[in-house]
Amino acid sequence: MFMMKFILHDWPDKECIEILKNKKVAKAGSSVVIFEHITDLPNAADSMELSRLMMSINMIAANKFGAKERSLIEYNELFKQAGLDTSNGKHIATRDIMSIYEVPM
Prior knowledge:
By secondary structure, the chain is α/β, with parallel strands linked by helices. 34% of the residues lie in helices and 23% in strands. The protein contains three helices and six strands, in the order E-H-E-E-H-E-H-E-E. It has helices spanning 13-21, 46-62, 72-81, and strands at residues 2-5, 31-36, 38-39, 70-71, 90-93, 99-104. The strands form two sheets. Strands 1-2-6-5 form a four-stranded mixed beta sheet, with no helix packed on it. The protein has a two-stranded parallel ribbon with strand order 3-4. Helix 2 links the parallel strand 3 and strand 4. The radius of gyration is 13 Å and the shape is globular. The N and C termini lie close together (9 Å). The relative contact order is 0.24. The mean pLDDT is 86.
């Protein structure tokens, strides 16, 4: 299992795809787990969604171009472009503005 917390939101899509493609040491059955502010989640409390969207504005303002919070659809697209199959991806909601998303390698 490869865990990344607050990594992908720092980078534009192209760099995220390169990070996710770098899986040379992964063994069979491994997975990638990200801890990020995932936006546009169904059934999310309005206050949580607002906090996630405000974090996106923060990322855009404080970092280089392309840094942002992403939706689950956007993360799925990044994983797919990196050659990972998201059909068995598992989103884990938390009682925080953070989300956990696990994708098998």
